[in-house]
Design goal:
The protein contains nine helices and 13 strands. The structure holds alpha-D-ribofuranose.
Amino acid sequence: MKVLNFGSMNVDYVYQVDHILIPGETLASKERNVFCGGKGLNQSIALAKAGIPVYHAGLVGEGGDALLDACRQNDVNTEFVHRVKGPCGHTVIQVDKNGQNCILLFGGSNRCMTKAFVDEVLDAFDKGDIILLQNEVNELDYIIDRAYEKEMMIVLNPSPYDQALETCDLSKVSLFLINEIEGFQITGEEEPEKILAKIKEKYPEAAIVLTLGGDGSVYQDKTGTYHQEIYKVKTVDTTAAGDTFTGYFISSIIEGLPVQEGLRLAAKASAIAVSRPGATASIPLREEVENWNV
Ligand code: RIB
């Protein structure tokens, strides 16, 4: 079984600010750092750091050399990472004194996917292989349809949620990883129990991990429901905490770990990520997660 992550790769320009800007405000930032990021790349690197061989499929534009280097340094397979003309995907991220962030996304090369590229990549994968997706690349509906035809297991983190997701046939998804906001956007419900019930009603075959910020996370499938608390740490930067959780939780499924153990591993890994600056740079190695004493 192979693991493919078809996803975004961004250069993150991260600005330290006292508070997140309000409309019309001008504010001097205290520091600027440039990190490798993008939900897709973060999740591939989380999988690799968790010990899972992963193929990343994505497009790197001008100014994105560090993103390819990050894949190579972290043992992410780059056979399906192509270079394209035009600006690379990038973000402008504000991180405030409490470690909370807000992200302005420029899709750039991540929005240059073509059906021909999707076909070329998926031709190398087969029934039973896992495909992980987020919503920062174009052609998401086509990728889902083609992966489903091939009988791959589709895992979707529908983030950031926008209208593109409404063109996707989400009944083809085997596992959703969502937060409460995305849960509301998909189901129209605000309370976690109602989100879970609605997902079960709409997509009865799918499993779901619902992350609840400070209230932890819940996993639900046909056999049951499991809850996991967060591990409390001093928050430095929440960027990529969700991606770290996603990569580590999927690694636990691939390894066949019990659900509760997978949730615990993912919660620990994302707590460590929150305690550090940056996206890919903040993701811990498996050994560190396992030896971490809370
Ligand atoms: O999930 C965090 C990521 O979202 C950042 O690395 C940024 O690139 C945006 O895609």
